[in-house]
Amino acid sequence: MLERNFDKLFTSVSLARKNTIHYSKNLLHLPKIDSMKLFCNIPLLDKEDIRKDYKLFLAKGRIEKDLDITYTSGSTGVPIKYIRSRRETIDLGMSLAMERKKWINANLPYTIAHFFKTVRPITYKYSKRQKSSMILSLYDHTPERLNLFISALSEFKPTILQGYSSTLYEIAKYIKDNNVKLPEIKLIENRSEHLSEKQRNFIENTFDTKVSNMYGMAEHYPIAYSCRLGNMHICEGNAFVEIISSNTNNPVGDGETGEIVITSLISETMPLIRYKTGDIGKISTNNCECGDTRAILELSYGRTNNYIKTPHGNINSSVIRRLFRYMYDDELNWINQSQIIQEDYYTFKVNLVPNKWPLNNVNVIERKVEEIVKSSLPYNVKIKIEWVSKLEKNPVSKKVSEFISKC
After folding, report:
1. Residue numbers in the chain where pLDDT is lower than 50
2. Domain with 127 in it
3. 86 Cβ partners below 8 Å, 6+ apart?
4. Distance between CA 68 and CA 53 in Å, rounded?
5. What's the whole-model pTM score?
């Protein structure tokens, strides 16, 4: 991290301490924060802290009706209300635009279509009486609605199409199955969901364009953005990233895996200092051959609340995510997507979406999947396999969860 960004980090803490009730109270016992040693003494911030009373985090003198209000997806429970100034929204948007510019040769303003939790199938936003963005609903993706989306995309001709990987894959499959021809889209941008190599290749081949990957949250974005080699570089100008142990809450060693914690270097209206994301990952010690010197964030695509419940305690669900890597092997290349659901301590259901149907090697695939899941767990379990047309989505966030515990 550059020296000037450390200055921004300590300034962000100072402003939060001065302007908000929460930080003025919780940092009262600490001296001025001007070193990483002191910074690491700041209490961690949990989503539940904000959910209890978001007004404790709102800077003094800010009036809600004059600010931008957003809500988190609710994938970890009840959605959180988050507030930022218009200036902060623009700064975050410009940071994202700079990352996109590394992928496409398009000057601002460009048009974008993205999937979002809206009831209306299609909504437009305007800038100077011109349509600047199109919002497509995440709900009810029937063939009729997908056809409506295709018509809207053909007419709107967006520069960028953004969405969850499961949704982008779904619409790409519809395009391929129906031999649809779309005007050129310069970039497909995945957000919030794990993008498998198989999904990436299918989406890129169908749209005849590249797919980038953005890691962020409704509260702060982008935290990291992929380069053309697929590595997620931390957006160090607007976020400071730490990795902590989920057991001790202490920072882990270089290259070790733990929970991702962020501090926003932009948000003064509602500061986020040492904010626990609930996501699992590590900061790589490797340099990227793309030439970008910023640190690489490797995501494990597990969440701290997605634990496998065992008779002897909890283990993180990332241990059974080996299945997703093996999907690219010859034996399993008939599988497009998979999802693991723990029904009780000893019973796991695996949902599999086939590449096509019928399959000639169902028994071989099922034996391989069962072998992979069983060998990943430290005790004997029962595996049930179901072939489905699509994976289950979180009813609130509308994201596909690759692991769900119902214990």
Report:
1. 328-330
2. 111-209
3. 67, 68
4. 18
5. 0.79
